[in-house]
Design goal:
Residues 5-59 form the Maltose/galactoside acetyltransferase domain. This protein is α/β, with parallel strands linked by helices and 187 residues long. It is 22% helix and 28% strand. It has a single domain (4-181), classed as Hexapeptide repeat proteins (UDP N-Acetylglucosamine Acyltransferase, domain 1, 3 Solenoid). It has helices spanning 4-9, 19-37, 43-53, 118-122; strands at 14-15, 62-63, 67-69, 75-77, 82-83, 87-90, 95-97, 102-103, 108-110, 112-113, 125-128, 131-133, 138-139, 144-145, 150-151, 156-157, 162-163, 171-174, 179-183.
Length: 187
């Protein structure tokens, strides 16, 4: 029989109130409180907290507090990833981010979702879909990235966009819903 965490990580409906999951979220929130309350001149302390919160981060992860996430352990970053102020990552399932990717302020990354049918939704069960963001991507301020989306390498997502579907590599995309506006010639 699968645990609720195993169900969560496999994309099945699961009970988020499970004791193990609640404990992991509480631990993440305690680390987030330390991070978000840290002073600008406490860079070593911030890096220490980030290593505990996001153990799968590549070298030189930079986060401008405040920052929020569900677990932290389901976030995997490449090297030199930057999150500007007030980003939220609901990492119920894996969020994979490539090297040198930049996030503007107020970016929201949501793997979590809920059943569409009200009876199933009112049961308290939820599910999630993973998100993949490539290398050298720039996500503009206040972008919302919805569950199950992939964004290709070297792509730029315009500020305020709502990304509901996969976006290919080497494009500028924007809007609500986000769509490809033009290709970017990388030569």
């Amino acid at each position: 029989m699968k645990t609720e965490k195993q169900k969560m990580l496999s994309g099945e409906l699961y009970n988020a109130s499970d004791c193990e999951l609640t404990k992991e979220r509480t631990n993440a929130r305690l680390l987030l409180k330390e991070l978000n309350d840290s002073r600008e001149d406490e860079l070593e302390n911030r890096q220490s907290i980030l290593k505990k919160l996001i153990p799968n981060a590549g070298d030189n992860l930079s986060v401008q507090p405040p920052f929020y996430c569900d677990y932290g352990s389901n976030i995997k970053t490449g090297e030199n990833v930057f999150f500007n102020f007030n980003c939220v990552v609901l990492d119920v399932m894996p969020v994979e981010i490539g090297d040198r990717t930049l996030f503007g302020p107020n970016v929201q990354i949501y793997t979590a979702t809920h059943p569409l049918h009200y009876k199933e939704r009112s049961s308290g069960l939820e599910s999630a879909k993973p998100i993949t963001i490539g290398e050298d991507v720039w996500i503009g301020g206040s972008v919302v990235i919805c569950p199950g989306v992939s964004i290709g390498d070297r792509t730029v997502i315009g500020a305020g966009s709502v990304v509901t579907k996969d976006i290919p590599s080497d494009v500028f995309a924007g809007g609500n819903p986000c769509r490809v506006i033009r290709e970017i010639n990388q030569d």
